């Protein structure tokens, strides 16, 4: 009975290690190819399974035996991908030149360890947000569902990564937005992946991404808006983020203790002029304990008519967190130069707000936002109060009400205010589901 039990255990062990054995043989064969074995007539690396794991032995093939066991010769085998070799415990190297085999064996094991850690994944994700919104500006009322999303912008996308070893990963993201009420893309330019389309690397030294992506203004100000840039068609911060997305963008982000540093360059692609159509920015955030501070600066050359003019943007923000209570606020300033026959355009945004988690499922929030046009004496003030309730980790119900007041050129300019309304009151109720 004892002999039978040992045979059964041996059979199970051989079955368990069969796939990694084949993969290991191939990896070792590739490692040793073309190397001088200093006196070996014919060198083979013999691999076997034992009670302590896999055993690697340097074998003199003249005898064909090591330690009383017959070992299979090295040959091409299956790929290592998908097999767990985490139980490699014992490495036994026997040869006429132990120092040579030790070095080569360590190199082979290192290669197999890297291969074992090289894993890749692709994730499908998205948000579907819709609801009913009522507005009344004194010139009539409107009730609509036609939106890309009230609380969040509806989207679907893919993210992926491949573990390259030593803390390095290859990453990518593709994301498109859509209108739930009619199924159309959320842009008029026909871009399929209008929200995100980039590839890059993530490493212990930071993250580098290349393609179409959020600009630094979005990355920095996101944390300093009380609603984290939710209600994008109601709260004025998202449209004021100096373009929100940049195409042809190379962006670096790195964390150094409590500091997070970032920089980017969006290539303009204008023949004969490196600067026209381009954008360059730097940003920094500091977080320690309950306080977080941040700022961003972006310089770009924007096409106005047939000419490119300088556009300078900067923003500052802060956030304070005391348990379930969060306070935040900030300031934006964008200055776009004018051309012959037109004046410069200056836009300022100020905001302050707070959120409080009543329970783990219920959050209330309030914010006040002012957009100012100093050159034309225009002002727009928006106040918003919101309540969200989580039915689950992925599904939320929300309700909000907002009030808007227009003054100066905001009340008289039909481009900014087609009906020249003095004020507007509105409310929204909806559902937001993520997957």
Word description of this protein:
The chain has helices at 2-32, 98-117, 216-221, 409-412, and strands spanning 43-50, 53-60, 65-66, 69-70, 120-136, 141-144, 155-165, 168-177, 196-203, 206-214, 245-256, 259-266, 279-288, 291-304, 307-322, 325-336, 345-357, 362-373, 378-390, 395-407, 423-434. α1 (2-32) packs across α2. The chain has 2 domains: 2-117, no CATH class; 120-434, Porin. β16 (325-336) and β17 form a beta hairpin. With 435 residues, it is mostly beta strands. The chain has a 16-stranded antiparallel beta barrel with strand order 5-7-8-9-10-11-12-13-14-15-16-17-18-19-20-21. Strands 1-2 form a two-stranded antiparallel sheet. The protein is globular and about 60 Å long. It contains 4 helices and 21 strands.
State the gist of this model.
This protein is mainly beta and 435 residues long. It is built from four helices and 21 strands.
């Amino acid at each position: 009975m004892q002999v039978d039990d040992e045979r059964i255990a041996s059979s199970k062990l051989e079955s368990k290690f069969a796939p990694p054995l084949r993969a290991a043989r191939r990896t070792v064969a590739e490692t040793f190819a073309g190397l001088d074995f200093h006196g070996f007539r014919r060198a083979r690396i013999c691999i076997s399974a034992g009670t302590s794991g896999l055993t690697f032995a340097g074998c003199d093939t003249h005898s064909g035996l090591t330690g009383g066991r017959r070992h299979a010769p090295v040959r091409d085998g299956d790929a290592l991908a998908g097999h767990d070799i985490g139980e490699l415990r014992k490495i036994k190297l026997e040869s006429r030149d132990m120092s040579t085999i030790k070095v080569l064996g360590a190199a082979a094991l290192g290669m197999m360890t890297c291969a074992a850690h090289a894993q890749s994944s692709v994730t499908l994700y998205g948000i579907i947000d819709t609801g009913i919104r009522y507005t009344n500006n004194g010139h009539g009322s409107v009730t609509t569902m036609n939106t890309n999303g009230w609380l969040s912008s509806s989207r679907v996308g893919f993210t992926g990564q491949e573990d390259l070893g030593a803390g390095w990963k290859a990453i990518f993201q593709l994301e498109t937005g859509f209108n739930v009420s009619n199924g159309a893309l959320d842009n008029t330019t026909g871009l399929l992946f209008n929200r995100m389309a980039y590839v890059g690397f993530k490493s212990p030294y930071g993250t580098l991404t290349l393609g179409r992506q959020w600009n630094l203004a979005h990355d920095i100000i996101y944390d300093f808006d009380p609603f984290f840039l939710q209600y994008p068609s109601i709260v004025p911060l998202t449209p004021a983020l100096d373009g929100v997305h940049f195409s042809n963008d190379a962006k670096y982000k790195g964390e150094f203790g409590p500091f997070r540093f970032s920089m980017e360059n969006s290539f303009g692609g204008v023949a004969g002029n490196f600067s026209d159509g381009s954008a360059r920015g730097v940003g920094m955030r500091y977080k320690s304990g309950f306080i977080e501070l941040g700022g961003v600066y972006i310089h770009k050359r924007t096409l106005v008519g047939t000419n490119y003019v300088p556009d300078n943007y900067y923003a500052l923000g802060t956030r304070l967190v005391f348990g379930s209570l969060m306070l935040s606020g900030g300031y934006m300033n964008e200055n776009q130069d004018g051309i012959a026959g037109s004046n410069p355009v200056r836009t300022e945004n100020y905001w302050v707000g707070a959120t409080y988690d009543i329970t783990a499922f219920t959050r209330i929030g309030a914010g006040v936002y002012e957009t100012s046009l100093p050159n034309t004496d225009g002002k727009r003030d928006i106040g918003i109060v919101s309540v969200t309730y989580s039915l689950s980790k992925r599904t939320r119900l929300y309700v909000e009400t907002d009030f808007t007041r227009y003054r100066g050129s905001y009340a008289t300019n039909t481009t900014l205010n087609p009906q020249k309304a003095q004020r507007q009151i509105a409310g929204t109720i909806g559902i937001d589901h993520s997957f």
